[in-house]
Fold this protein.
Amino acid sequence: MRLSSRKALAAILAAVVVAVAALVGGAEAAKRPAHGALLRAAAAYIGVSRAELVKDARAGQTLAQIATAHRKTVAGLKSAMLAALKTRLDAAVSAKKLTPAQAQARLARADKLLDRLVNARLGRAALRPARARLLNISARYIGLTPKALRAELKAGSSLAQVAGTHGKTASGLKDALLKPFEQRLEKARAAGRISAADAQTRLARISARLDRLINRTR
């Protein structure tokens, strides 16, 4: 697969993560198998390869448009994706990671979220809101404007290096970036959607990803 195609696929996966997060439990949705299963289900139902799905999405088409262009229905597309999600939720129940009630509640929310997903344009712009939030939090902690921070990153510095240059620490930056995730996981735990142990596991996974993000350079 060419580099441009890999980047396009990454953008599509990022958009799916946003839509799936509320269904399979926040940070868990960031695992490639979760959103990958939905894309595989979509491609299989439509009757195209994942590479073809990427190409059409790069051209600006929604999943619904791609489906109808191949003489498939949007309802059928959603059903295929819901079936893939149900399979994952059933597996989580069997592994005692979710209760049957939690799985059913998440599946019940899926219909509305999948409406948005199949009608969303899943190109590179899908990455912008998440990137902007991380950039804004980082800039606020470091004491820069987002524009100034972006300029230093483009010059080749990592977030950790920019923080150090401005008298801030990488650990403090990480804490600032981690806080919103901690709040969301705690809210999910308090609502009974995930267990305390599950929340801790997911937080550890996010923490590791933030370590890589903070120290990454162009």
The first helix runs from residue 3 to 24. The chain has two domains: 3-122, 128-215.
